[in-house]
Design a protein that fits this description.
- The complex is a heterodimer of chains A (207) and B (131).
- Chain A is elongated and about 110 Å long.
- Chain A is built from 8 helices and no strands.
- Chain A is an all-alpha fold and 207 residues long.
- Chain A has 2 domains: 102 residues, no CATH class; 80 residues, no CATH class.
- In chain B, strands 1-3-2 form a 3-stranded mixed beta sheet.
- Chain B has 4 helices and 3 strands; from the N terminus they run ααβαββα.
- Chain B has 2 domains: 39 residues; 91 residues, no CATH class.
- Classes of the chains: A mainly alpha (207), B mainly alpha (131).
- Chains A and B meet through helix 7 and helix 8 of A and helix 3 and helix 4 of B.
Chain lengths: 207, 131
């Protein structure tokens, strides 16, 4: 009976000691998650790596910190090459996810930019954004017509004025098509990355 | 008689000038007070058209922008952060991509109205050269 009591007391002591040891790691981890949620991935990853130095190698938190830092570093560069070799548990979990859901491709801006340059609105249509393509075309094509109309009548400064507005709007349309290509690729990457984060079983949501 | 008439005319023109000066001073004072009462922000000549839209035309057209932040606020942020050239590109981009984004979201409730959530950071992140 006495031995049983001793075992219970010591178990409680060990449990509380473990909890007391883990609490600061968890709170540092949460702080890093908050930083990452504010878009400061590099700082959050650096914080996690710094904290990792003070955690025992065989502690479960060591692998979590390593995996979280690697994932945040990859997100900061929109990279799909994620090194989880130092976090075997997370690597095994992530492997299943990646094989089932491959990483999205990077933005293909060349066809989009070229199409917008040749035919205003074409870049947006390539991305499947038909309404945007219509708006872009309505912005530029009438201005091209107006510029040609003024040029045919040799209207001098009026032609220059229309031409400058056309160039400005056309540049805006090309910019918009490139921006949409980049944004769609980035949002697809973020969705994939969030799935990967969930699959690795890491606590917290850094978004 | 002639000398008196000339002196009288000179006095009249001086009084006229004084009256014009007084009217201009009063008008200036009124404009200053109106400006203060409207709490218009200090601005630069480059952003006058935008400010004019935000504080005069915007009140007249019913504030019907479907996005958050509203287009004029977005334009102001874009011009402040990226300057006239890149800022104007971002403004054109906002006007174009709103058409499809309004069918897709994401949405946010702002000022009691469901709006398309489209902050500047969503569209200018790739300009920083991070990728």
């Amino acid at each position: 009976m006495r031995a049983c009591r001793r075992i219970v007391v010591w178990s409680l002591v060990v449990l509380f000691a473990g909890a007391a040891h883990a609490a600061p790691v968890a709170s540092d981890y949460q702080t890093a998650m908050q930083l990452a949620a504010q878009g400061q991935d590099v700082q959050a990853a650096a914080r996690l790596r710094e904290r990792m130095k003070h955690v025992e190698w065989d502690d479960a938190w060591h692998d979590r910190l390593e995996a979280a830092a690697s994932l945040l570093e990859s997100r900061s560069q929109f990279s799909v090459d994620i090194d989880l070799s130092n976090a075997p548990m997370q690597l095994a979990l992530a492997g299943g996810y990646i094989s089932g859901k491959p990483a999205p491709d990077k933005a293909s801006t060349w066809p989009v930019g070229a199409l917008s340059l040749i035919a205003p609105g074409g870049g947006h249509a390539w991305l499947g954004r038909w309404r945007d393509a219509g708006v872009a075309a309505m912005m530029v094509w009438p201005m091209i017509g107006l510029t040609l109309w003024a040029a045919r009548r040799r209207m001098g400064p009026v032609t220059v004025f229309f031409a400058l507005i056309t160039i400005w709007l056309w540049s805006g349309v090309i910019f918009s098509a490139l921006s949409m290509a980049e944004r769609e690729a980035a949002e697809a990457y973020m969705q994939w990355w969030q799935g990967l984060w969930g699959a690795t079983g890491l606590p917290g949501r850094p978004w | 008689m002639g000398r008196h008439w000339i002196a009288g005319q000179a006095m009249v023109s001086k009084l006229r000038l004084a009256r014009i000066g007084l009217i201009m001073a009063a008008a200036s004072l009124m404009m200053g007070l109106t400006w203060q009462a409207m709490a218009l922000p200090t601005t630069t000549p480059g952003s006058w058209p935008l400010r004019f839209y935000q504080h005069v035309l915007g009140h007249l057209d019913g504030r019907n922008c479907s996005s958050y932040p509203v287009c004029s606020a977005y334009a102001s942020q874009a011009l402040t952060k990226h300057g006239m050239v890149m800022g104007s590109m971002l403004i054109i981009d906002r006007l174009i991509h709103e058409a499809d984004d309004l069918q897709r979201g994401p949405w946010i409730v702002a000022d009691g109205k469901t709006r398309l959530y489209d902050p500047l950071a969503r569209n200018d992140f790739w300009l920083k050269g991070d990728r």
